[in-house]
Amino acid sequence: MTTAEQHTAESPESSESSESSESSESPGSSIAFTATLVLLVGAALFGRRVFAGWFTDDGIRTWATMFVGVTVQALPFLVLGVLLSAALTAFVPASFFAKALPKHPALAVPVASASGVVLPGCECASVPVSAALMNRGVTPAAAIAFLLSAPAINPVVLASTAVAFPGQPKVVVARAVTSLAVSMILGWLWLLTGKGGSWLKMPKNRHAHDDPKFDVFRSAMLHDFLHAGGFLVVGAAAAATLNVVVPRAWLDHVAGNLLLSVVILGLLAVLLAICSEADAFVAASLTQFSLTARLAFMVVGPIVDVKLIALQTGTFGPKFAVRFAPATFVVALLASLLIGWWLF
């Protein structure tokens, strides 16, 4: 009895402390994100003397351009994803998703993959949206399928691919079919492993059901932006560093070997971390490579790259990212080889 009274007496304090820890999370994240951003932007703008012994002037300029370019390209779509995520959290009842998707998880995966066509954004947007879907009761396999398909088969990406490869509609078809197939395969593989629950850190719903909807929207938007934005900045810095360090001349020596060129362009897509709306133009410029190898570049880039791995690590945990990224990479390469052999 005394223990129960003690527990009830302590519970308000514990709830207050948990509330204070949650409320302090946003300022702490804000300070960390701002400090990281200021440090990296300062290095990009004023780091020539500091890094003069490591890189040439051209290398430093390339790093600064790449870092700013990746961040500027990705940030608007990250904001779009955060807004959609916050709107899903605040305004859409959980029952909607139960009705919209088939109840059987195996059938929910292809429906979620096909629904990725409605989100005109890059991979940065799909991570917070898929996290919000999990919070609203969608099975993780279906949310993962959406995460992979949304940045790869949306109308903006397919239109940019058609512009980058004029007169070659097979390239657009190959990209759409391959990306859709990869998203469904990964969703089904997640169901078959049986260990997804222990690998995935489920995003927490931080809001009570009776909170005002606009307060929930504002809080979720700020939290998700600060959380994902920090990882985006780190990922952009990693992509810029790898872009400077990795030499380009060796590409000419591997273009003649189909299997090797597919692997190399897949790895290049991971390292460059180009937004899915722009990667088709980069692929089109790599004329020394076959269409199959360039298809692999366009399929891999939107679903596994350095900044996306960083975003997934921060959102779903390192256990998820360390297993999911290699599996996605291998499935994407195999699917690109198969579809390329079929269509090209």
Automatic annotation (TrEMBL):
Asked if Repeat is a keyword of the record, the answer is no
Q: Which InterPro entries match?
A: DUF318 (IPR005524), UPF0718 (IPR052923)
Q: How does it sit in the membrane?
A: Multi-pass membrane protein
Recorded superkingdom: Bacteria
User: Transmembrane stretches, by residue range?
Assistant: 31-51, 63-92, 141-165, 172-192, 225-246, 258-274, 320-343
* PANTHER family, sorted: UPF0718 PROTEIN YCGR
Q: Which family does it belong to?
A: Belongs to the UPF0718 family.
Name used for this protein in its record: Permease
Please give the organism. Answer: Kribbella pratensis
